[in-house]
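2024-03-11 09:14:02 DEBUG pipeline.ingest accepted 1 chain
2024-03-11 09:14:02 DEBUG pipeline.ingest length=285
2024-03-11 09:14:03 DEBUG pipeline.predict start
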Amino acid sequence: MRLKNFDLIGVIFLVIINVGWTQLPSRPLIIGIILAVPLIFILPGYTLTQALLCRQSPAPSSNLILRPSLKIGQPVSAVDHIILTLGLSMTIDVIIGFILNVFPIGLGALSWTISLGLVTTVFTLLAAYLRRRNHVKIEKIPRLRINIYKCVLIGLAILVAALAIWLSTIRPSATQADFTQLWMLPSNQATNSCAVRIGVQSFEATSVTYRITVAVNGAQLNNWPSVVLAPHEEWKQLVPIPLLSTNSVYVEARLYKSGRPETVYRDVHLILTNSKGSKNQKLAC
């Protein structure tokens, strides 16, 4: 007696419902999740498992050597069916996800539904054909007996899957806070004079007005009262440093924003050492 394909017919019916659901203009989220969960986690793996394990098992052997019970073409227990269904379904999901990501169609509700539905339909037809060809007899599926240990494992598996789905839906936090960079580097000149190169780059959301000062040994040397920078715009300036009688020169650059003109927003400094008579100078001037 041939095995009736009521389960495979139900699979095709669920695939058709999912595809039709994606075509509706208004789709409640809860109903969409209820329909999508079987298509993602159950149907592809179930139909592939039926296609792989639908053949008749050979006559039992009297060999005393125990062989693995899980073989393609031989019946397996109900727990093995569940594990294969979930494992193969998630494997198929990953493979289809990579394929969809390569093509312009991308990862969308419609592309996912059609792809998983097509793969599930192919496996369903293959399982139905193999059942018909091999004349599989109706056998009672072993009663599923789950103890506390198996309940814990299944619960942990469901928890991990739920956490994975939840983490995949979390969007990254907003971009980092707006800020502005101020930098200063020594610059040796061909004329043996000493200079520093200062720069400001804005990473603000809008255009900002800055005030920039440069001081040498505490005395102000240069002042730019109004430097307007658009987002990602950069300002650079070469500042000659006068050689003083002291062996070292302390150069400090300060940056102020227009909103708080009296508060130092950024502050950088350099110590330049006069090269005359100094062997361990930090910078030749």
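2024-03-11 09:14:41 DEBUG pipeline.report The chain has two domains: 6-57+72-169, 179-273.
2024-03-11 09:14:41 DEBUG pipeline.predict end
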